[in-house]
Amino acid sequence: MELIQNKPDLSSYLAADEVIDHDHPLVRETAARLARNAADSYVYAQLAFEFVRDTIPHSQDSGDMRVTWRASGVLEQGTGICHAKAHALAALLRAEDIPTALCYQRLARGDGDGHVVHGLVAVRFNGAWHRQDPRGNKPGVDARFSLDGERLAWVPDPKSSEMDYPVLYAEPHPAVLGALKAAPDRPQLWQTLPTAL
After folding, report:
1. Above pLDDT 90, what percent of the chain?
2. I need a surface site. Which of 6, 64, 75, 80 has the fewest CB within 10 A?
3. Contact (Cβ atoms closer than 8 angstroms) between residue 71 and residue 21
4. Which ranges does the record mark as transmembrane (predicted)?
């Protein structure tokens, strides 16, 4: 699949905004702490990925009812669904000048009732984009940081109307962000997350 930037200028994938607020002190402090242990930007990207994947629980897995969406809020509250964790990882990577995009998949819901849009990121290294999924591992899910072939949480099954969206967004998709910002809790969010883009 060819990944397509929704903004032609690569600097758009380094920008700070309301959601990917890598100018926030907590994001800057976290990035600086991770960078101290990194020999280069590739090692930093892997450390940031593993930090978000492993130390910020996916709220569905942990049973946390809170909804987070801003990168600094995800780091502060230590919880989030896939989209929120993708926002946090994007902020940490952009804080160290690594171009990072938000991207999406359409997956069947775990309960088999319809579909949901799943969020992940893509990082730019060596002139190419590489998708990464910081969702968080659990039995049956083993996502890894990789620039040599994707190691995502899920591979969409076209027979189940699942798909990878090829667009690389510089900001969160409005339908996803709108659902995150409006939901008072995770059970409500599950009812309003988009089923397709």
Report:
1. 96
2. 6
3. yes
4. none
